[in-house]
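Researcher: Next sequence.
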Amino acid sequence: QVQLVESGGGLVQAGGSLTLSCAISGRTFNNYNMGWFRQAPGKEREFVAAVRSGGSTTYADSVKGRFTISSDNAKNMMYLQMNSLEPEETAAYSCAATRSWYLSMYYYTDEENYEYWGQGTQVTVSS
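Model: Next structure:
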């Protein structure tokens, strides 16, 4: 059984930074492809960033240049460094994992393609 646990959320002022962490347990981490999604109140969950095993990454257009996704296979961890945060980015951020490998990174932008999900961590950006 794969388990994902997020941490690092909190309250930050607009323009500030936060780093989210996702700990994965239960399987060999480097066989998994990982993603971050977020869901604001009253809105649908949306893709933020993904990292494929081997290191390829992809980002939502809205976060390119401000967010950085990374993974540490030795520690079974994934991270999301978020800079220049905006109030509209207030949401519950969740990490997700899939064993499916696709050449196109677009595959990892679809939440339907992930089998495992964490509970989420709240990020609140004040104006």
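Model: The chain has a mean pLDDT of 94. The two ends are 40 Å apart (CA to CA).
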